[in-house]
Amino acid sequence: MRFTTPTPLFLFTPASFYSRSTWLWNTKECWYNYPYQPLTVDIHYYYILELSFYLSLFFSQFTDIRRKDFLIMFLHHVATISLITFSYVNNMARVGALVMCLHDAADVLIEAAKMANYAKCQILCNLLFAMFAIIFISSRLAVYPVWILNTTLFESWEIVGPYPSWWVFNLLLISLQLLHSFWSYLIVKTACRAISKGKVGKWNPLHVSKDDRSDIESSSDEEETSPANHKQHSSSSSSSSTANGTNKNHGTNGYLTGATYPDEH
Fold it and tell me: How far apart are CA 17 and CA 4, in angstroms?
């Protein structure tokens, strides 16, 4: 679901209003005639699908395995759901659609990278993650503040002027930007660490490192560590048996298995 849902949302739904919506390319159009802008059918259903998807992520977080980044993901889901609901209620659907399109672009790639990792296609996983990292960092640290925050903070102030909900909306957007910065730091840190160890692709950049319960935990890592653990276990068992005078060819406490003893006659 985490791959099949955002993929059509990013590829097909926004495509329905790409060609005829001038506010996609000229962000000032998001504020002309606000708040009396008509809500089109395609944007209406786009909002319903996005809100349903993030609500499912929010509630499934409580039934899934608790991870180290639970609080951060919880705050992200709360901020996202609040932004979707708040922008819809206040008829900020145009700029809200821009924010959702921007976020869906990178989410598709990380879910595809996870599936490639599960399928043990390491080269494909590495390629998809590299694409994800580039798009995530460029879109959320460059495009998001220049394209989204610029229009919500400055263009809206110039055209519409500040109003009560304006402050709340921008506060939520700025909090989302702080989360973007934190995750970008984790991605760069984890990627550098993995490259230095020669294990590119065997991690989940959206979860804290050393969390062995991460969604993208590599099954190949398990196969590499399993024989080593078995060898270590066998070695310790052999040492223990030798210390007690027992080995494979000798029975308990140095006696041959199945041998007859003088005191048994």
Answer: 21
